[in-house]
Amino acid sequence: MLRGIPSTMGDDYQLNVLSLLRHAAVNFPRTEVVHRASDGEWARSTYGDEWTRVNRMAHALESLGVGAGSTVGVLDWNSRRHFEAYFAVPGLGATMVQLNLRLGEADLGYVVNHSQAQFVIVDESLLPIAEKLAEASYVKQWIIATDSPSSEVSTTLENAVFLEDLMSEQPEVYDFEQVEESTAAYAGYTTGTTGKPKGVYYSNRASYLHTMAITAGLKVGYTDVVMPITPMFHVLSWGFPQMAVGAGAKLVLPGRFSADDMGAIAKAFVDEEVTVANGAPAIFSGLLEYIRAQDTTPDLSRARLISGSTEPPVSLMKGFRDLTGAEVIHAYGASETTPVVSVNWEIKPELGDLDEDAAWQLKRSQGIPVMGVELRIVDPTGEDLPHDGTSMGEVLIRGPWITQAYHKLDDNAERFDGDWWKSGDVGVMNEAGYLKLTDRLKDVIKSGGEWISSIDMENSIMDDARVLEAAVIAVPDEKWDERPAAYVVLRDGESVTADEIREGLLKTFAKWQLPDTIEFVAELPRTSVGKLDKKVLRSQHLGEDAS
After folding, report:
1. Were 525 and a residue from 306, 452, 511, 536 both cysteine, which residue would form a disulfide, CB within 3.0 to 4.6 Å?
2. Does 250 qualify as catalytic in the annotation?
C-alpha cells in the first residue's frame, strides 16, 4: 500500500450506520415512518420518534447484557422493531444477525449456532419457530417483540422477556460511543441450495459506503417515499432501510405479507405515494397481476421498481409502464456484495437511438457497476476477457463492500481470487460497460460443445404475454452431453402449445438449441428467498429425491 503526504481531514472519524439515523432525526425529524402492525393496520411515526425508540432499545438491550462483541439475532418481518434493531444493535458495538425465517429448521438452527447468537429478538407470530430453535441452540435470552400485552402472549421459551415492556422503562437518551468502523454491524447467511449456509459479515464502514453509493445510484432524495418489499432478513432488504434514512426519505414498512397478499402492498403504493420499492420479478409479477384485476388502475408514474434476483421479463417491464406508468429498473447483487453491484438506470447517450426491441433488451440486463465496484469477466484459466458483448466468462467482483472471506470458514480459495470474489455467475460486458449475465456456472447448458444460456431462453419464453414464468435446466443427453428442458407457467385462462413456445424461441435461438422437453406446470419451485430452485427441477426431471 502506497503512502503519500498525510491529509488534514478527519480520517479517524468512524463511519457508523447509527449516524445515518441520527442524521435523519436531526434534519428530518418530522418525516414519516409508516409501518404495518401485526394486526394488519397501518400506523405512523417520524424519524424523531424512531430515534427516541432506538435510544430506548439500546438501553433495554444493554440491560440484558448486549454490548460490544455481542451477537443479536432478529427473527422478524419488515416491521418497525426490525427497523429499529438495524440501528440500536450496531450502535452498541454488537452485530445484528439476520435470521431467514423461511430457511428449514436445520439450516436456521445452524445459522443461530454458527453465529453464536446469544440474544434473539423474535416477533410474536414467529414464536413457534423460536421454540423449535430453542431446543438445540445456545441462545441465552429470547426477546419477544409484540404489540399485544405481554400477559396475553403464551410461549414455552425459557429466559424470555418482552421488548416493549423493557423499552417503556428506559430513558429517551442514550450516550452512544463511537464504534470502530471495521466492526461488523450486520451478519447474513447465504441461502445456496448446496452445503451449509455461509456467513457474510458486513462492517459499519462497508454498510455506510454502500448506502452512499446506492442513494446516489438510484437518485433517492428526501422527496422520495421508499418501501422495502424485499425481506429485511435477507441481505438487509438490499440496504433500502439505510438508504431511506440517509436520504431523509419517507419510509413505508409493509410488515408481514406474502405473494398472495398483494392487495395491501398495492394500496400502500397508492395511499403513501411510494416512489422507490424493491423486489424480485416474482413479487412484481404478482403485484402487476393484482393491479390488472382491479376495476381502476392506479397512477404509479413516479414509482421506480428496483428488480433483482433474476432479469425482469420485458413483458413485466412493459406491463408496468403501459398500465401504471411505473418504471422497472434491474439491479444486480448477492449476499456477498451487501448486495448492490450494478444498476441499469438508463441507456447511455453514447449508444444513440436504439430501436425499441434493442432498448428493452439492454434495459433488462444487469447494467453499469455502481461507483466503488470493479468487475472482471474471466475465462476458466482466470484470464481477462474483452468487453465485446460476446466473450462469456465468470464475473469477478471487488470493492469496499464486497466480502473477502466467509465467517469462520478456513478454506475460502474456491470462491476468492485474492481480493476478488468469484461470483459463480457467467456473463458478458459490452463496450459501453453494461453487464449481462447469461447463466450460473452450475446452470449453463453445454450441448455439443456449445453453451446455451438458460437465462436468455427463460426470458425469451416469457416475452410471450401469455406466459407468467419459465425455467430452463440442463438435462443429460447421451449424444449431446446436455440438452435444455423448459418448464412453463401460463397466466390464468391462457393456452399455449409447446410448438408455439419453440416457434417464439426461433426469433433468438437456433433450431438446434431449442428445448426437446417443454412441460407446462402450475408453479415453479423456489428457494427461501424466492429464487428459482433449479436443483429441485433437475431432481424432479430425473425422478430423484430433491432433498
Report:
1. 536
2. no
List 32, 42, 62, 190, catalytic entry: 190
DSSP 3-state helix, strand, coil percentages of the chain (rounded to 5)?
A: 30, 25, 40
Model pTM score = 0.86
One of 42, 131, 196, 451 is an active-site residue; which one? Answer: 451
Q: Is 451 a catalytic residue?
A: yes
Name the 3-class secondary structure at 43: strand
Tell me how far apart the alpha carbons of residues 149 and 231 are, in angstroms, rounded to a whole number. 26
Q: How many C-alpha atoms does 311 have within 13 Å on its Cβ side?
A: 31
Q: Considering only CA atoms, which of 475, 428, 434, 477 is closest in space to residue 456?
A: 428
Residue-by-residue pLDDT tens, the chain, 547 positions? 788 998 888 778 999 999 999 999 999 999 999 999 888 899 999 999 999 999 999 999 999 999 999 999 999 999 999 999 999 999 999 999 999 998 888 899 999 999 999 999 999 999 999 999 998 888 999 999 999 899 899 999 999 999 999 999 999 999 999 999 999 999 999 875 557 899 999 999 999 999 999 999 999 999 999 999 999 999 999 999 999 999 999 999 999 987 667 888 888 988 999 999 999 888 898 899 889 989 999 999 999 999 998 889 899 999 999 999 999 999 999 999 999 999 998 899 999 889 999 999 999 999 999 999 999 999 989 999 999 999 999 999 999 999 999 999 887 878 899 999 999 999 999 999 999 998 888 787 878 777 788 888 998 999 898 999 999 998 988 888 889 999 999 999 999 999 999 999 998 888 888 999 999 999 998 876 667 788 888 888 776 544 3
The tally of CA atoms less than 13 A away on the side-chain side of residue 320 is 25
Look up residue 363 and give its three cell numbers.
434495459
* Grid-cell match 439492454, residue found: 362
DSSP string, 378-428: E-TTSPBPPSSS---EEEEEESTTS-SS-TT-S--GGGEETTEEEEEEEEE
50, 124, 336, 469: which one is catalytic? 336
Phi-psi group of 490: left, alpha or beta (phi > 0 → left; psi -120 to 50 → alpha; rest → beta): beta
Given the residues 180, 442, 446, 450, select the one marked as catalytic: 446
Distances (CA, A) of 146 to 39, 99, 122, 198, 210: 10, 17, 9, 30, 31
Contacts of 195 (CB under 8 A, 6+ apart): none
Q: Is 421 a catalytic residue?
A: no
Residue 381 catalytic?
A: no
Q: State in Å, rounded, how far the first CA of the chain is from the last one.
A: 47
Other CB atoms within 10 A of residue 427 CB: 23
Instruction: State how far the Cα of 332 lies from the Cα of 311, in Å rounded to an integer.
Output: 9
